[in-house]
Amino acid sequence: MSFKFEKLNIWKKAMELGEDVDAIADTFPKKELFNLSSQIRRAADSIALNISEGSILQSDPEQKKFLGYSIRSLAEVVTCLYKAKNRNYINQDYFDEKYDFCYHLMNMLIAYRRRFL
After folding, report:
1. Domains of the chain (ranges plus CATH)?
2. Helical (H) or strand (E) element with 55
3. N or C: which terminus of the chain has fewer CB atoms within 10 Å of its end residue's CB?
4. How far apart are CA 35 and CA 15, in angstroms?
5. How far apart are CA 3 and CA 46, in angstroms?
């Protein structure tokens, strides 16, 4: 037995991103605990949460709406990555790696969302 979302590659990738972001946020300065660290964690976790919520007992328009929330949260993660890079909390290589991952995930989310048009 499994839930529908557990079979979705977009959900698996979003889960991976959430764990990666959680680990890197642990390295941010203590002053960011309730600011950037919290914000990037919540945004990253929101991606997978909205994918799963939208996939359970939702109409196609509702699922499309939740995928839109996931895409917006992903954009928020990217902006937080820029903030972290600009504040020298992450290096350019890490930024580039996560940026590429986010860009690929965004394209996957958009392609999947088009199914519900």
Report:
1. 4-114 (1.20.1440.60)
2. helix 36-55
3. N
4. 22
5. 18
